[in-house]
Amino acid sequence: MDSRRFVGWCLGFGMTLWIGLGVQGLYAQAGGLESPFALGVGARAIGLGNAYVAFPTDATAIYWNPGGLDQLERKNLVLFYTQLLGGT
């Protein structure tokens, strides 16, 4: 049973590492020193092709359209992380 757990852990770690390195490759193709805000904020907004300015429904409105914050119906919290410079 321990060998199955170890193999599962290794596969999970390998997939995490593979995905992480793939994201680093995307940053390298984008020029490396691109603005950290060029990617956008929020999965829903990016899924809509960055056409989120007129439809603020969560706390990412502070990035897309700060004037839309008064349209929010409840409190929201959004956490966002990006590397400012590639490789740092």
pLDDT < 50 runs, ≥5 residues: none
Task: State the distance separating the first and last CA atoms.
Answer: 40 Å
Share of helix among residues? 40-55%
What oligomeric assembly is this protein in?
Answer: single chain
Number of strands: 0
Radius of gyration: 18 Å
Total number of distinct structural domains: 2
The secondary-structure class comes to mainly alpha
Question: Would you summarize the structure shown here?
Answer:
The chain is built from 3 helices and no strands. By secondary structure, it is mainly α. It folds into 2 domains: 1-34; 41-80, no CATH class.
Describe the structure.
This protein is an all-alpha fold. The chain folds into two domains: 1-34; 41-80, no CATH class. 42% of the residues lie in helices and 0% in strands. The chain is built from three helices and no strands. The protein has helices spanning 2-29, 43-47, 61-64. The mean pLDDT is 74.
Task: Please outline the helices and strands.
Layout: H1 2-29, H2 43-47, H3 61-64
Structural features:
88 residues, 2 domains, mainly alpha, elongated
